[in-house]
Amino acid sequence: MRVIGLMSGTSYDAIEAAAAELRLDGDELVMTVLGARSLPWPRETRDGIAAVLPPAATTVEAVCRLDTLIGRAFADAAGQAVRTLCSGAADLVVSHGQTVHHWVEDGTVRGTLQLGRPAWIAEATGLPVVSDLRSRDVAAGGQGAPLVSAVDTLLLRGRPGVAAALNLGGIANVTVVPRTADPVAFDTGPANALLDAAVRHFSGGARHYDEDGRGAAAGRVDAALLALLLDEPYYRRPAPKTTGKELFHLPYLLDALAARPVLELADMLATLTRLTAVTVADACRAHRVTELVVSGGGARNPVLLRAIGAELPGVRVLTSDAVGLPADAKEALAFAVLGFLTVHGLPATVPSCTGARHASLLGSLTPGAAPPRLPPPAAVAPTRLRIVPAAAR
Length: 393
Ligand SMILES: Nc1ncnc2c1ncn2[C@@H]1O[C@H](COP(=O)(O)OP(=O)(O)O)[C@@H](O)[C@H]1O
Ligand SMILES: [Mg+2]
Description:
2 domains, binds magnesium ion, eight-stranded mixed β-sheet
């Protein structure tokens, strides 16, 4: 089955579209990556997302408009993916949508909202769409995140030592897959969220991120600001736990800077880069991780990767490209896998990772042009993900 995965994370920097050929072979899920595209948001849509994100107040009208704009942008991305990655023929689109709110109260997730109405994608492509993948896990008592943990578990199971997957998006999340114990997954804290907020704010909106970590490389860590930021209670909460830009936003950073002023942007960036490295490393040490497979936009920041490596001597740090998943497209490919599991009647969550009472069949299904026809429910749930290069198919 040819499946397109569409994802935009909390950084809302771009829509990631990826396509994969997926099939079940006994207890293996076999994936061939067909390709991936990173598609810029239309300016109006991106501004609209920025305007509704916490702590901003918004209106139902703004949410309605944005739901349509995001749905149409995802529909364009899906159309391009069908044409350019699948030679015009795909079977299914899986759309994460854009998270605009992740409602956490005392560590319990009570709701999570992704915008981007799937009808636009179904109308534009004629393909069935699986969307709204997070809600069912929340309804089953889980965090609704990190959902990629199910795919990480399939991918890393059986690797030597204690393998972990780390995604460095706006927020950083890890999935730890020990050889004999249950896997665990959680958000460690900000990856790029505060870095991006600092760059945007102090460049007056001229720049959006610290390209290649150049600012951080030129600055010095401010020990007092770092200590203040590390005092955040979230880091001390036990897993499973998830967070978002409801907590780690610009006013949060400005409050910290008011308490501990740091004048140079470069020093702020050095400090925030170290904050990400330290919180990721603390999480890895707590779970005795020996190998760390990194993905997400932060994997392209060499200063951040070096800082993480320096905090974790003896741990093998590699990017997900080394295990067959392009670092930028990993999350989009993971969502393609989750939707594929859904249409095969297979639960796609790991309760020890999301904290749910049980594993759930995820998502809502929007029919395409034809009446919905699902494959017969799979007889065997896969226990491993095998990635086969396109040339070797
Ligand atoms: N070359 C780079 N140097 C430094 N940071 C980068 C680079 N490329 C991407 N990033 C960071 O990665 C972020 C996007 O990562 P992504 O995985 O798409 O996050 P999300 O899932 O939250 O959208 C950007 O906002 C930026 O902070
Ligand atoms: Mg992104």
